[in-house]
Design goal:
With 149 residues, the protein is of the alpha+beta class. The chain is built from two helices and twelve strands.
Length: 149
Amino acid sequence: MKRTEKETTTNLSSDISVKNDEICGMLFLDRVLVLPAMEGCELVAYCRVMWIEGDGCNIHIHRQGEKPICHTIGLNDFMNQMAEKHCPLFIRVHKSYAVNILYLSKMCGNILYLKDNQEIPIGRVYRKHIEEHLDVIRKSTTLKNNKDK
């Protein structure tokens, strides 16, 4: 990637703010989501995104302890782009919601709980897929705990 005259700035307090015309747009780097912002782009680490809410042609990206980021892309398009980039962290749990599997806690009835007790509704179409992910998480946690003993 060639450099431009605009400087690159970083903000270490949360995510990284970038001023660089070459990477603006809906790009997905290795582990970072690049979103257009008023003054360049904002980089959001995948692991910091807890859940995503779709609202027609927009998504609201929710991060732990921070204000949601609104971006003009539909949830279907977002999930398709994540699949193209082979990013398995996000799963669809409802027609309007996707969650980061790192934050899954438990499922109770038609509600999915994240680790911060955030409640996300479960769509009946997505229920079996969520149960499979929770089983994998339980098994990997059990294996890890058994190795530590």
